[in-house]
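Practice problem: DUF3142 domain-containing protein
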Amino acid sequence: MAHVLRTLSIVMIATMFVAACGRAPAPLSHDAYVWQRQWTPALREALVSSADLVRDWRVLVAQADRDGQFHVFAPDTQTLARSGRPVVLVVRIDGRLAAFDAQALAARIATLATGWPAGRVAGLEIDYDCPTARLPAYAAFLAALRPRLGAIPLSITALPTWIGSSDLDALLALPDESVLQVHAVQAPQAGLFDPAVADRWVDEFATHTRKPFRVALPTYGSRVSWNDDGSLLAVESEQAALAAGATSAELYAAPDTLLAFVKHLANDRPRGLIGVVWFRLPTADDSRAWSLATWRGVVAGHLDSRPLMVTLQPGSSADAPFDVMVDNASESDAAPPARVALPASCDVADGIDGYRLQRRDASLELIAANARPMPAHTRRSIGWVRCKAGTPLTLLPIPAQGTPVS
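Answer key — structure tokens:
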């Protein structure tokens, strides 16, 4: 009988072990960066109404600027408390800051973090986009900061450009977790977010860390200008206007592309990946971010997306040109068409509102140069055209580049 009981016990333990090994990982969690320094009514409303979506808020609370000056911001702690979600305090160190006193800065940051109300701080994050050559110095700074935080977990943001460095593994061993940023402005042709490139970065990053990590994904668009030599002139991500350089473009992270990418991460999750952090929390007064409803749809895993419609609208008189109209009838924001081919029966045209005319052999096309995103339930004219009688009024838009990862 004893032998039978021992055998049954071994079988039960083995069965439990196999079941545990085959158990599906926890769903990816979602955090959001609150990067705004002005706590407007729209920001407060977005934060409270979105608390059901997020695990933590990652709130910008201080910055060391390029001159080494330390600026402390004043988040609305009452609104944060009302949301009921924990807060990860984020301190940004300007990547252009060539050198700093690691001990002095660590002491200042630790004093700020430990001064927050007990039980409300879920962690501290350092956002330092330093050059790859400075990773050893960055590691020394984290080593000075880590013991000063006590029980407060430490996280850092990480850049894909660090992945090729032999110093990366040592750096990632210091914080409790890291956040890989896979959205960036690299070149006009590269856009703001490339799912195939981001997927490769995530897989490569997973081989360098033995700690949990998250992936930072964009909810915004940017107007970007380049000099004639191809160097970056300026990036504007929070306002609608920017003085254009020799080359400028509107770059946009399309919601359907990001939704597909998050589903891909969940279905083919690299070792150590535990969540997504969205940059940044959309608000009603943020003209370059998605609408709050669109972000909610992406996080929830479902968008009411319908194809954009492009039509020719007759003018007010018989000899007036047609208006080229784009309609987004869905509940979700959408990227504008990258290109609209005009019928062969049209011989004169021009683009407006971010579109320019291009002649390709004997045909005409409207090409997106600085085209704005299409918010939900929006109708917009992108050009005009003169066509012969009988021209089809429905056109075929070519989507923006960026094929979702499957």
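Discussion: The first strand starts at residue 29 and ends at 34. Students who identified this feature from the tokens alone can consider the problem solved.
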